[in-house]
Write a structure and sequence with these properties.
single chain, alpha+beta, 11-stranded antiparallel β-sheet, 8-stranded antiparallel β-sheet
Length: 678
């Protein structure tokens, strides 16, 4: 059951009673509708929120980093130096940014489950489920014109259809310097106190004009107070709170060590590349930040799963679920208890099978052996030639009609790719492939084609034409024949390994994904019977509502205030001699006397967040934006598995800090006027 303010709640099943009982707050339909239609999902990863009726939305600088990097060039580093368009005709169009705004949710559980018959094998059940989900999505897309995704909830307990309005004309309005957006860098990542202006503003356009967004979040000029109830509306990525103990042990002993080994390998390669020159450092910046951030997050997760107390909590949760099932009235209780026991045993058996091919699947099908967007482009070109002639419902999920437009938008992006950077990344990841499977492994021999990793990476990047969007488009439009005739080394590599990659994918789907889904569906049924809807589903990168209170916490006998101030940023920089990553931008140093140094900068609350919530609006009771979520503290890294509010906090930029900086340092009067509507 949910404890304290735990929960990333579905917007079509919000925690009205919990909010009423714990916080005396009536969650109304108009409040919820405005929050839903004002919340934004960025397909590059992360969340945001509309803050004006003219398509203006806010997110994090680190979420915007992908677009900032792609809009930059040698001698023009927007990620490092920032940007501000003081007029709309100066706003910069992002090459491939897509945002989604949720319009409605429909429960399609009965329809999905009806397609799977008891007598089906796992492979047949997976195919039937995939087909019916594809049909539902296509029918919805054809009927509404909206992006339509069937989302699996409770790991197979429910299926909901999410419909999104999509914007692909997204333009950059404002970004601060990286020095202040990520003040403290990797040293302070997942730490608190923090002093970061981790915000960026974009504008959505439609038909060449600023989008009309009547549902937006009013910008609070005051911000939150200590003890205040706040809400986070965003798109949390993935959590594992409903996973079984056996699955978590597998994650602890197999998956996380492998993942950390991979991330450390890539981080070292990217650092080495970036040290060659300032331009190389600029090219590698977003990849390096992404990898380093993931490494630190997964390290925290591993520490959590190595904590016996957390594993005991998970074991107790399973025991409580079984006891709850056993207490149910006969014969339902006996049946529920048996179902739960069988499901737990099934998940445990799956882990034993998975160990035999998990690395090969991750390296070849997931693509860890080929750490470059060039390989992803090549694979899409190859597979689209095979998949697109099929009916939409029979294709691999990423090629269904409901996903195809977004996929092509990314695939044909004119965003720059850098040959030397991609060569370095492929060298590292091909080496990682050989280190994990061994030089004599057939997949390694196939991938390396008689060369060492460095020589093979050189051959692939020097010989490919896939840097050019026109060549990608030619191959996709030419279909299987154009792909078969291509002499491009990356296309030939993708073709050479595709049969084995598809086998690994099918094996994973049939031996892991489908059996686990059936087992978790059985556990979800027992959980619903025992606890009702008091347990929120795990995160799925779909819109959720979380809530909590603004409050500081204590560490090692030191009480940390619920917010930091501008003055603390200057104090910390001075204390550390202004050395990187605690160096402030010249604009801030020169403008210090203009600022009210007591202005709140960042604040913390107990609301339940996770990766993917970056950029999420933080709202007050009135539905006003009081902050922009950007991080968790290290105590919150265990929230993938268990919720705690003793010390765990999410961290947000204070709404007042944004206004103070925009007014006095940049200055950005038109942007401020649009935010405060004055």
């Amino acid at each position: 059951m949910a404890h304290s303010d735990e929960g990333m709640w579905l917007l079509n099943d919000p925690p009205r009673q919990l909010l009423k009982e714990r916080h005396q707050f009536d969650l109304t339909d108009p409040w919820l509708k405005n929050a839903m239609l004002a919340s934004v999902r960025l397909n590059s990863g992360g969340s945001g929120g509309f803050v004006s009726p003219d398509g203006l939305f806010v997110t994090n600088h680190h979420v915007a980093a992908d677009s900032l990097q792609k809009l930059s060039a040698a001698g023009r580093d927007l990620l490092r130096d920032g940007f501000y368009a003081d007029a709309r005709d100066k706003e910069l169009k992002c090459p491939d940014q897509e945002i989604n705004v949720l319009q409605d949710i429909a429960d399609v559980t009965k329809e999905v489950n009806a397609a799977v018959k008891p007598e089906m094998t796992a492979a047949e059940a997976f195919a039937a489920r995939r087909a019916v989900m594809g049909r539902i999505e296509k029918e919805s897309l054809d009927k509404t014109g909206l992006r339509s995704d069937v989302v699996t909830l409770y790991n197979g307990g429910l299926y909901h259809l999410y419909r999104y309005k999509k914007y692909t004309d997204v333009r950059l309005v404002f970004a601060p310097e990286k020095q202040i957006a990520s003040f403290g860098g990797d040293v302070d990542n997942f730490e608190y106190p923090r002093m970061n202006l981790d915000v960026t503003f974009f504008r959505a356009y439609e038909n060449g004009q600023p989008a009309k967004t009547p549902h937006f979040l009013k910008w609070s000029q005051v911000g939150p107070q200590s003890g205040e109830l706040v809400f986070v509306t965003g798109h949390p990525g993935t959590t594992q709170r409903l996973e079984t103990l056996a699955r978590l042990k597998h994650r602890r002993d197999e998956l996380l060590p492998y993942t950390l080994y991979r991330l450390r390998t890539l981080e070292a390669a990217l650092k080495q590349y970036g040290e060659q020159s300032p331009e190389c450092a600029r090219q590698a910046a977003t990849d390096l930040h992404s990898v380093a951030n993931a490494r630190k997050a997964f390290s925290g997760q591993l520490q959590g799963l190595l904590d016996p107390n957390i594993m005991e909590q998970k074991q107790a949760a399973e025991r409580d679920l079984l006891l709850g099932a056993a207490r149910a009235a006969e014969p339902k209780g006996r049946s529920a208890f048996d179902d739960a026991m069988n499901a737990l045993a099934k998940v445990e058996a799956v882990q034993a099978k998975l160990r035999g091919f998990e690395k090969a699947h991750a390296l070849v099908e997931t693509g860890h052996a080929f750490f470059s967007p060039l390989f992803g482009i090549a694979r899409h070109c190859v597979r689209m030639g095979d998949e697109l002639p099929k009916k939409s419902a029979d294709r691999l999920r990423e090629y269904r009609d409901s996903n195809l437009e977004s996929l092509k938008y990314q695939l044909f992006s004119p965003a720059p790719l850098y040959p030397e950077l991609e060569r370095a990344k492929l060298t590292a990841s091909l080496t990682f492939l050989a280190e994990n499977l061994g030089g004599e492994h057939d997949l390694v021999k196939l991938a390396l084609a008689g060369k060492n990793p460095a020589a093979r990476a050189e051959e692939l990047t020097a010989g490919t034409k896939l840097f050019a969007p026109a060549e990608r488009k030619r191959l996709v439009e030419g279909g299987a024949q154009a792909v078969a005739e291509s002499k491009d080394p990356l296309i030939q590599l993708a073709r050479a390994i595709d049969a084995e990659a598809r086998k690994l994918r099918a094996r994973y789907e049939n031996e892991v994904e489908e059996p686990e889904r059936q087992a978790y569906a059985a556990l979800a049924a027992v959980r619903f019977m025992t606890y009702g809807s008091t347990v929120a589903p795990d995160a799925t990168f779909t819109l959720r509502l979380a809530f909590g209170t603004v409050q500081g916490y204590e560490v090692g006998g030191e009480k940390l205030n619920f917010h930091t101030t501008f003055g603390e940023a200057f104090e910390k920089s001075a204390k550390l001699g202004g050395a990187e990553p605690f160096d402030l931008p010249k604009r801030w140093l020169d403008g210090k006397d203009k600022l009210d140094l007591k202005t709140p900068f960042n604040f913390v609350s107990t609301a339940d967040t996770i990766g993917g919530n970056s950029g999420s609006p933080v709202l007050n009771r009135a539905g006003e934006l009081v902050g922009i979520n950007f991080d968790r503290n290290r105590h919150g890294l265990v929230r993938n598995f268990v919720y705690t509010d003793v010390q765990a906090r999410h961290i947000a930029v204070h709404s007042k800090a944004v206004l103070e900086a925009l007014r006095k340092l940049y200055p950005a009067a038109p942007l401020v006027k649009e935010l405060v509507r004055q």
